[in-house]
């Protein structure tokens, strides 16, 4: 769904007319439920120092002879336009209905019942973020530390699905179990399964947090196939050089069909005053039919943030919470650095059977990507955020078209910027 400039302008004007506060906008009390409205609008800009591939290319008509109609080495587009209704009550019931008008999909759409006054003890039915997602994904999108989420979050984790979830815990720990099916939006992710997550914060004081956690997900593959791929740390790019392609789908061969996927995740968080160190690891195992070797891939990231203006972080439901600026006029300034890696190689190359034949690939060689991201964030007042990132990406993938045992490298550098308004 494409938003016209006039539609977006009206939406922004309506939001700007609301009181300038970080909290949601109260609407009314309907059926003993306190209804409120939230929103998030993000606009991104990427500039590419292209290496092998043209990541600024587009394929929109009327250009029919080239994939790069505009010839530009940059992309600019609305990234998100999220509109969310929330309700509290009657009693211990809470509900949410969210929709992303940019991506034309439902977000959280569920109803929750809390047991007593414990916000960490509840049962939830509908669409929600799965416990098998990363801690980064479970955190609020508006407070992401970098323009692009990590490669394991975007490529391996299981995000929103329809299901039922039970959570039991307290302010310092929690255990979550979820059974899920397809995504609510038509023609999106499918494959039923279950997810588990547990976390513990033995240190949870103002300005001092230490958290560890782990998750496990097991799910069916969609139509007996799965395709794993990773963008070069730029969310709006359509080309993904790191890609298992048809190697794990029946499109390549019925013998390549996949049965089930299991994912294991580990997470850690440390906060001391204005500094935050965060790391996550994820491994994926794909069970395949027949005698073919199962596939295994993994990835991780390590990031550090410094709140230059001195603010610290909060902690809620096993995730960090970014606080409001202590001086709204100056805002909250952050400096961040992240190392990220993903490896979708699980195989080897054998010599060709004949002198003129092609090398033989045993297993799956989807490629490997490493990246460094340096970022500056500015939270201004209660509703605005501006981000600027420099990303250095190194990718390598085997290509049998260029000879035996040769990896082809593609190493773009990217400048990324984001303007964000939320209420």
From TrEMBL:
Keywords: Signal
InterPro entries membership: Porin_dom_sf (IPR023614), Porin_O/P (IPR010870)
Domain of life the protein comes from: Bacteria
Residues in the signal sequence: 1-23
SUPFAM superfamilies: Porins
This protein's name: Porin
Organism: Luteimonas gilva
Upper taxonomic lineage: Bacteria, Pseudomonadati, Pseudomonadota, Gammaproteobacteria, Lysobacterales
